[in-house]
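Person: I keep going back and forth on a fold encoding question. Show me how you would write down a chain together with its backbone fold. Please set it down just below, with no commentary around it:
Helper:
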Amino acid sequence: MTVHIIEDDYGVADALATLLGGVGHDAICYPDAESFFEAPPPLSQDVVIVDLGLPGLSGVQVVRWLEKLKTPPRIIVISGQSNTQIRNVISKLRPVVFLRKPLSEDLLVPHL
C-alpha cells in the first residue's frame, strides 16, 4: 500500500511522510492537486490523504475525481479549518474520513 499525501504545506507533508514511514508505509507527497493528477492514479489498496485547502484545484475536486475511479482508494480528508466550514464542504461528498490538523500517529494510523 502506498499513501499519497496531497498537502501544500511542506512541513506538514514531510511530517506525515516521516510518520507513515515509521509505521512501515511508503508515502509520496504532492504539493498540489495538479502534480497529483500528473502522476499515475492510485491503486484501490492505496490511501490518499488530501488537504481541503490546496492552492489551485481544491481538495474537494481531488476527492470528486477519486470517487469516479473504477476502484477508488481510501480517502482521508485533512484540514485546519473550523469544524463548521469543513462539515459543510464534506457533507456534499461520499462518506470520507475527516481528520483535523494537527495530526498524530494515534489519530491517523487506525484509518490506514
About this structure: The chain has one domain: 2-111.
